[in-house]
Amino acid sequence: MKFKDLMQPHLRNVKPYVPGKPIEELRREKDHLDEIIKLASNENPYPPLEEVKQAIANEIAHLNRYPNSGSYYLCSDLAEYHHLDHNKLFVGNGSNEIIDLLVRAFISPNEEIIYPFPSFIIYPIVTQLAGVKAVEVPLQDYRLDLPAMKRSITDNTKMIFVCNPNNPTGTYVNQAEVEAFLDGIRQEILIVFDEAYYEYVVAEDFPNTIDLTKNRDNIIILRTFSKIHSLSGLRIGYMIAHEEIVTCLHKVRQPFNVNRMAQIAAREALKHSDKIRARIGENREQMAFVREEMQKLGFTVPPSQTNFLLAVPPPDSGDIIERLMDHGIIVRGMRPFGLGGGTFRVTIGTRDENVKFINKLKELR
Ligand SMILES: Cc1ncc(COP(=O)(O)O)c(C=O)c1O
After folding, report:
1. 163 CA to centre of ligand 1 in angstroms
2. Domain at 18-47+277-364, CATH from 2.60.120.20, 3.30.450.20, 3.40.50.720, 3.90.1150.10
3. pTM (two decimals)
């Protein structure tokens, strides 16, 4: 019996998501390494705030009970935080789950999904899972090409992903570009602004998509607690959208999609947004250091509004990713994102980690 032949035909060629290599895995493979630094998954190098850790610890006593099913109280807190109606909010097991639910809820077999490429690797995967046509629109100078994405719209287009800032390039599209893009797009096309790195953005002309939802019902915004809030390990993200879109997602989600610890941690993190915001400055400072040093070494490094940088090595750099790995530094190779030539993405770490990364790069390039 070949079980793989029993799988639904459109799912057989799906390539599973490959995450950045975990520290434990590299330690198993290379037990000579004294220290391993992971700069591969755009995580926050710092642990959650003390108050958040305490809230999680207190919640342990209640784990015999199922979590609140629709993350009601977190939705209330988020509604207050963003000055929105409660019914425009939906919480997921990471914003990744919400991407999956959106496709499941809204995409029928003959419809098309437009997304930029290279961009977040989950868009091609969910499109394949849905068995529908993917319309991949290449970036232009490492930035989303919104005019080309708009030109790609057909009668069958149902959803467009706008990853802003874009993972893996870190670049962004601004308010004027987004407004020009939205102008004239029919209301039946769902425009998903994936803003996982929103809290790191400092560009003043970054689009205010929450304001845009006030005049356009087809705008969907995704945010996450995985990045600046240091909660990647708990899996929690949220969506801001029209209340009918929220209702549709409640129909397709699992009954208890977001666990108790995640809900409590996110609620507590929101209470300390001033402390969270204080992390932006350090990220910018460290990113400027890493970028400058890499540029001195001949790398092309597009400017970034996130907590990571794309690094395109100078020609003839050989397998720099593998050499870094041999020396205990994990970065993310960009081949799965369609970028070869040793191109990688590096997450901004602590000062100590960044200095070690740069020193190794100088030694190994
Ligand atoms: C652009 C983008 N969207 C969504 C996500 C998923 O985030 P979450 O951890 O909330 O599922 C990521 C994670 O790296 C991302 O880079």
Report:
1. 10
2. 3.90.1150.10
3. 0.96
